[in-house]
Amino acid sequence: MRVDKTSSNAPSDSDKPKEEIIGNNTYHPDIADVDYDELHVQCPPHTTERKLITKIDWQLVPFLCILYLLAFLDRVNIANARSFRLVEDLNLKDTEYNIALTIFFVPYIVAEIPSNILMKKFSPRVWLPTCMLGFGIASVCQGLVQNYSGLLATRFFLGLFESGMFPGCFYLISMWYKRSESQKRYSLFFSSTSLAGAFGGLLASVIGKMQGMRGYNGWRWIFILEGSLTGLVAIIFFFIFPSFPEEAKWLTEEERTYIKARLQADQGHNAAERKITFRDVVNTMKDHRVWLGGFMYFGLIVPAYSYAFFAPTIISTYHYDAIQTQLHSVPPWAASFVFSILMAVLSDRLRHRAAFALLPLCLCIAAFPTLLKVHDNTPVQYAMLHLVTMGTYSILPITVCWFSMNLGGHHRRAIGTGWQIGFGNIGGIIATFAFLSKDAPNFTKGYAICLGFTCVSGIASVLYLISIYTENQRRKKAVRDVGLSEYEKTEMGDLNPEFRYMY
């Protein structure tokens, strides 16, 4: 790999003694994308890098996928429940159903950053299963409510307990993997949302047949059974859920040291040992790229949640009954799962994020205008729903990964990812009012809103790319060695002049 030698005052990594590189574990900017051997970080003699990463994959990714699959299932199963007399039984009028969707996002948005800070304090092994148990109980309680007020209360607590799931899991993944190898893990984790949507439709088509059992309509059984499953898994996770590398008892001391060293070589020191302060929050939020990261995610959340919350409602306008509506909601989710994994594999193989955060937007930009104009051709309309899910749900994990892995250090990454997800989920509030019953069956306003916010995400992504490219070029031309201590580099994170942003 070509190494930039713009500055004659600072030696390149190839000019430094091997012992200096290994001993200091400092960040070396122009080799962030090279292979393991070129980083000169020695792997423990009893294993190899590939074997160790595979071991980490099996100890981390399945747990996060299961956790978020159940979280997303409990979040959006209200859309399935609506097809089985939820609105009629609770006597919901006008926009009360939409308000019930909205109330979820109030605590969900506010508690995102505090949740990441608390997870760092209590460790993921304690914090995430605790939150999981909480939203499992809240989901069961949704199936027992008797009126609109009860539904609002349970949706509020569901949002509160789920607030830490998404940013917490992304944050945890970023503490284990190098930037060049993270996208497949991010997308596999996030694609559990597509699986949740697919399984949600299948489960609802089966559970819906329990209509009237023990005096409960089908919508109650959807909440009760799916919430009970979440609670059971949460109790098991208390004993087996993974944590940060520094706390992983299933790794030897040599393996923990190696994992820490390879991340430092790729990302710089992460300040895992230091507590996050309010000053950290203020300093992080002064960075304009952090704000752009929020808008990148915000624009995509509107079409993402619009589909998640209203897919059965939209599909029912194609003249299917309740069971057929649930079954027809499955293929678009399945298509998005396959396409998301494909995009992630290509992104990691090419070690590139920007193109894969922008090109799939074309699918959404093609789908929404078609849905705005075509109202009498069910096959075409149904095909466009596939493009919507494929575009939206493939870009979301790449956008978050791209932004998260360009944040250096524990504190900036915890705050930055919490902000991106928290601010972005304001789009969820907009989505809950995008598709109103009075706009059926054409839903012109809803599709127009989704198209507009898709463009917002695209514009923010382009601006972010321009910003990090410009900054990288500026840092290449600047003097490399500005006399910063290792502590100062750690505190600065990606603001360290030696850091290079990934495209």
Write a structural description:
The protein is 69% helix and 0% strand. The protein has 503 residues and is mostly helical. It starts with 17 loop residues before the first helix and ends in an 11-residue tail after the last helix. Mean pLDDT is 84; it is low at 1-38.
Output the keywords.
24 helices; globular; single chain; 503 residues; mainly alpha
With helices defined by DSSP (H or I, 4 residues minimum), what is the helix count? 24
CA-CA gap between termini: 17 Å
Helical coverage, percent range: 55-70%
Radius of gyration: 23 Å
How large is the share of residues in beta strands?
under 5%
Short overview:
This protein is 69% helix and 0% strand. The chain is mainly alpha-helical and 503 residues long.
